[in-house]
Design brief:
By secondary structure, this protein is mainly beta. The chain has 1 helix and 5 strands. Strands 1-2-3-4-5 form a 5-stranded antiparallel beta sheet, covered by helices on one side. A hairpin with a 5-residue loop joins strand 1 and strand 2. The longest helix has 10 residues. The protein starts with 9 loop residues before the first strand and ends with a helix.
Length: about 80
């Protein structure tokens, strides 16, 4: 089963942060970002996920700020195709 550790982070295009996307088999897309100007901790420029405590997440049309790795893993678990 996929989880947070499967996310591949790259530099965010607006700079000062990182981003990762994951497409589930059901077609839904999970977007995880962190850095300056995002709802994350820290809210400052960064370059790797190890620097992040909480992330901004967009999933199924909803944006949630300050999500932990465990909360992101709950999204993966809820959308696992059996």
């Amino acid at each position: 089963m996929a989880n947070f550790n499967n996310l591949v982070f790259v530099d965010h295009p607006i700079g000062g942060g990182i981003m990762a996307k994951y497409r589930f088999d059901n077609g839904k897309v999970l977007s995880v970002i962190a850095g300056a100007s995002f709802y994350s901790t820290p809210n400052s420029p960064l370059s790797k996920p190890e620097e992040v405590v909480s992330f901004e997440v967009m999933f199924d049309g909803e944006v949630e700020g300050w999500q932990s790795r465990d909360e992101i893993n709950e999204i993966f678990e809820a959308n696992e195709v059996l």
